[in-house]
Amino acid sequence: MDVYDVAVVGAGPAGSAAALAALRGGARVLLLDRIGFPRDKPCGDGIAAEAVDVLTALGVPDPVGGFPPIERLRLVAPGGAAVARPLPRPAHTVPRRIFDERLVRAAVAAGAVLRRHTTRGVRVDDLAVVDDEYRARVLIGADGAGSVVRRFLGHGANPAGHLAIAIRGYAPSAATEQVIVTTRQRWPAYAWEFPLGDGTANVGYGELLRGRPLSRAYLRDRLAALLPGAEPTGLRGHHLPLSTHRPAAGRGRVLLAGDALSLINPLTGEGIFYAVLSGALAGAAAARGPHDVAGRYRDALRRRLGRHLRHSGAAARLTTWPRVADAAVAAARHDPHTFARMVDLGLADGLLDAGTIGRIASRMVPWRTVPA
Hints:
Layout: E1 3-9, H1 13-24, E2 29-33, E3 46-47, H2 49-57, E4 70-76, E5 82-93, H3 96-110, E6 113-116, E7 122-124, E8 128-130, E9 134-141, H4 148-152, E10 163-172, E11 178-182, E12 189-195, E13 200-208, H5 216-226, E14 233-241, E15 250-251, E16 254-256, H6 272-286, H7 293-318, H8 322-334, H9 336-347, H10 354-362
Parallel strand pairs: 1-2, 1-9, 2-6, 4-11, 9-16
Antiparallel strand pairs: 3-5, 4-5, 7-8, 8-9, 10-13, 10-14, 11-12, 12-13, 15-16
Helix pairs in contact: 1-3, 1-6, 2-6, 6-7, 8-9, 8-10
């Protein structure tokens, strides 16, 4: 039985990025996925510029090629106020059936061995073993919200309050900007419209789960209420494990990346940037061998994302009050720096600064004119 330096379970963005990074480190890499490519994956399809940066550095040729840049974002606050400004850096909307296949093909072209396999069990002795069929010195679980590798490490699914659910489809659209419409009803919740540039858009609705299950009909009705006139097809639902409840990044010779590590932005539901970045860090750590690989990976994650995750988690806790979100949109409408900070915090690895916090807080103070 072959022994690989690195085996990656899941060939989505996190898994493909992990494979590419490990290959660049000189490792022999096995990439496993239960579904063949191309395949659809329910998602908002939004690709931030920072995700493109990571993939370009890994050698992926033009991961967003053929899809025009989206240069503006319109954000509607829970109270109805809106801000529309140019994005700090253009984003793209690329269907996952196209985007994911590009990454997989880049990994295979770089030397990864791709196998279609449904992972059912993992064990570790002198090596990491997948279903008594594949062996590796280091195993990376990039197998999504229902990760088998995560369960092997003893971590269950995210609990209520740290898990969101969303539904998405595709609809005719003449939009040229990204649109996010938030709502006070069952806040935090929002609908989105992300144009592909071909006369269609990815449209969807998501909200935080608080314990009781939400029906497909309910999610569809909320989407119709917030984006009236949209007639989406191909509606599919998916869970989003939020970064406010992350398991340990790894143990022994087993690591987690992407959704399996609950790396979903709690403010926006964005996960592609987190996926490719964590995958790249996991692959680079794994390529150096199994000795203290979990520690190396944990330290790399802390250096690269630690402060950002603390800031995004704190912002998510603060914005559980719709009034704070209303104030943030009002501040962003009047100040481009605040808008840029909010976008970077929600779509990439941005941080809050004192000035941004002050400008948002000032919008919550009922100023009055004092008589002379």
